[in-house]
Amino acid sequence: MISLTVALSAGRAPAQPTPLTFQDAVQQALDRYPAVRSSVEQVSAAAAAIGLARTAYLPRADIIFLENRATHNNVFGLTLPQSILPQISGPALGTNSLSTVWGSAVGTLVTWEPFDFGLRKATVRIAEMERDRAQAQVDVTKLQVGTAAADGFLTILAAQETVVAARSAVERARVLNQTVQVLVNNQLRPGADAARTRAELALAEAQLIRAEQSVDVSKAALAQLLGVPGQSLSTQPGPLLQVPPTDLVPTFDPVHHPQAIAQIQSVFVVRAREEALDRSYYPRFSLQGAGYARGTGLRPNGTVGGAFSGTYPNTQNWGLAMTVTFPIFDIASIRARKRIENFNERAATAKYDQTIQDLNGQMEQARAVLVAARRIAQTTPIQLEAARTTEQQASARYKTGLANIVEVAEAERILAQAEIDDALARLGVWRALLGVAAGAGDLQPFLNRAK
């Protein structure tokens, strides 16, 4: 029965989550974070806009069917083009009657522009540039999300290493408190020493609680990017707890950075709009073909036909034509729009120059941080070794009565801080390398070395 109970309990035990590697965290963030999906869908919308622009090459066909019953009074005279008064064809009969007749019409008009001096091509070009800009923005979003996920993973590791050091500090403080309590109970040390060790133990435990809180907060931040519960995250550090090699520094060319590419695409979009405006002030040639039929219940002599006369079209016509339209006075508005686009191009170009300048500055800062991080990582092992020696000597001196409890407590604090600094220094080098990779605009070499 005991064996069966143990077996059933083991079967009901919840499965442990698979540890998340550094590469998996970045990839899952890129796959799941809604901002990436949103930018990808914007690319799809921009690509569909290209298809919409290309439909301008197709002929246009309009079909109409009209059935009405209306009065037939018609007069001579002029009406300017408008959309209010219905038009009546046929001679003026000199009547003013409220009697009505049937009227009907059906027809088709096909219009095609055989050539347009490059206007449609320029319009398609605008849509293509918009698509390229959206695609470049996808790369920017992926870089930002991937960098955030990588930084979140490193933050979790840093918090976990702080927890390890804090637990060691708590254990040392507990041992010291027990040892001092025995000495105080045997009246070999004053009671103030026991009070001090209890205070140091409580301080170490509070530091451990804060470190564990940092782990939970860091996991929640990374879980937000991954779209999973924070409690289910389990990390696999891999080589990230060791000092990375010194050759892990990518080449840098600001013009190839995703932010620079996205900004130069904005310049290309404005230039495409300028090109379309350059081709707007040309005649528009339209090849048109029409076929239509009409019916009316009114006869040429003014008499009205039968009850259903005019309900169906019975008079047919067709025609072919080439029409040319030229907006003469649009030159002023086109010039004004071109001036606007010229200023837009200047603004976009200036922003591109600013982007290049900012990227250069960010890379210099990231390299400076990397140099300092490597130097710190070289000094923390020395600091840790010295802190351990100091703690051992202070404990030995205290046991022989040559030191007081204050020296021991101070040595314990220095050792705990040295352990934390040493662990964070190694992760600090990786974080600095992440900053350099993000500044270069390509995380893949960094991710490959972090396997």
Q: Compute the average pLDDT.
A: 88
Q: Name the shape in a single word.
A: elongated
Strand fraction band? Answer: 5-15%
The biggest beta sheet reads: 4 strands, antiparallel
Instruction: Look at the structure and name the CATH superfamily.
Output: Outer membrane efflux proteins (OEP)
What is the CATH architecture annotation? Up-down Bundle
Walkthrough of the structure:
This protein has a single domain (18-57, 115-282, 326-449), classed as Outer membrane efflux proteins (OEP). The radius of gyration is 41 Å and the shape is elongated. It has nine helices and four strands. The chain is of the alpha+beta class. α4 (119-185) packs antiparallel against α5. The protein has a four-stranded antiparallel β-sheet, with no helix packed on it. The relative contact order is 0.14.
Core attributes:
451 residues, alpha+beta, 4 strands
Question: Could you give a quick summary of the protein structure above?
Answer:
The protein has one domain (18-57, 115-282, 326-449): Outer membrane efflux proteins (OEP) (Up-down Bundle), CATH 1.20.1600.10. It is 62% helix and 11% strand. The chain has 9 helices and 4 strands.
